[in-house]
Amino acid sequence: MIRVLLAEDQAMVRGALSALLGLEPDLDVVGAAPDGEAAWREIERLRPDVLVTDIEMPGLTGLELAQRVQRHALPVRVVIATTFARAGYLRRALDAGVSGYVLKDAPAERLADAIRQAHRGGRAIDPELAVDAWGDADPLTDRERQTLRLAGEGLAAGDIAARLGLSPGTVRNYLSEAIGKLGVANRIEAYRHARQKGWL
C-alpha cells in the first residue's frame, strides 16, 4: 500500500480527494491537513510515502512545504494538485523536487497514477505545462517574493518588516528590486504581474 497524506485548505475538496483516492486498492490516505504547517506536523508524525498538496494554502504554501521536505531530505514524494496551470508555479515546483504536478480538473485516475509514478521514483507532469515552464525565468529571489506577497496582501513596509524580522529599509529595498526586475511602476503592479506569471 502507498501511504498518502493530503494537504488542502478547502474542506470539501479535501474530503472529495480523500474519498476518491480511498477507492484505489493500492492507496491508503493516512491523514489530511488543512494548511501547510499542519501538513508538516503530520509528515513528521505519519511519515507518508507521498504528500499530495495544493499550492495556495494559509501560512506555509504547498511549494514552501515541498521545499522544506527537500531541505530535510525526507523520503516523501510530493505531488502538487492545483487549479494553477501556470508555468512559473511548475518551474518552482520542479526546483523544489516535486515529483508530480496535476491539475484539479483532470480525471481522478490521473492523480492516482501520478501518486503511483511518484512513489516509483518517476515524475508525472502535464507535458504542455512542462514545455511552458522553460519559458520566462522567475527573476525574483525568495526574499523579494516574500515581501512582494505580503505587500500584495496590503501590509505596509513596517508590518512586513516586523513579520519577516527585517528593517523597514531592507523591505523597501526588496520591493524596489522586485519592481525594477519586473519592469512595472509600483508594488501593486509588481504583485499582480508576479502572481499572473506564477512567481508568487
From TrEMBL:
InterPro entries: CheY-like_superfamily, Sig_transdc_resp-reg_C-effctor, Sig_transdc_resp-reg_receiver, Tscrpt_reg_LuxR_C, WalR-like. It comes from the Bacteria. GO terms for molecular function: DNA binding. One of its GO terms (biological process) is regulation of DNA-templated transcription. Residues 133-198 form the HTH luxR-type domain. Residues 3-119 form the Response regulatory domain. The modification 4-aspartylphosphate is found at D54. It holds the Pfam family GerE. Keywords: DNA-binding, Phosphoprotein. This is DNA-binding response regulator. It comes from Cognatilysobacter bugurensis. The lineage of its organism: Bacteria, Pseudomonadati, Pseudomonadota, Gammaproteobacteria, Lysobacterales.
